[in-house]
Amino acid sequence: MASIHLLRPAVGVSDLDHLRQVMQARGDERCIHTRNIPKRADELLEGGSVYWIITRKILARQLLTSIERLEDDNGRAFCRIYLDGTVVPVHPWPRRPHQGWRYLKPEDAPPDLREGDTGDMPPEMIAELRELGLL
To answer: Could you tell me if 79 and 69 are in contact, meaning their C-beta atoms sit under 8 angstroms apart?
Structure first.
């Protein structure tokens, strides 16, 4: 079975450093709480990541480590999606915001930003150069 990813807006997060601070502050509880349980959970756990939309661009990803199905005190189902602590920067790709999460096919996911890959450029400049077809 092939992996699939989740695409999720990082609500209230201003930039990549802020996302790292938020995740570090969560300690061992790096998870996403969702009302709906992903129907493709098995595919997500085959190496899938959460790709974060920050300020209208996909800027980072975090590896999914587990999914826990739970019920609240009223018997309503929900789940927690647990994430690895490492926030991996990716090539900034423009993306419209949406609520909740969406599935992201591996071939549609931006590649990781490797050391030296325009790392000294601001994400806005990288996104603009990509839109112009120069990156």
So the answer is: yes
Question: β-strands 49-54, 57-71: how paired?
Answer: antiparallel
Residue 43's CB: how many other CB atoms inside 10 A? Answer: 16
Task: Tell which CATH classification among 1.10.3480, 2.30.130, 1.25.40, 1.10.10 matches the domain 5-131.
Answer: 2.30.130
Read off the pLDDT of residues 12-24 as tens digits, 9 standing for 90 and up: 999 989 999 998 8
The full set of domain ranges for the chain reads 5-131
**Sequence letter at residue 13:** V
Q: Judge residue 87's burial from the number of C-beta atoms within 10 Å of its C-beta, 0-12 exposed, 13-18 middle, 19 or more buried.
A: buried
Convert the pLDDT of each residue in 68-101 to its tens digit.
999 989 999 899 999 998 999 998 889 987 888 8
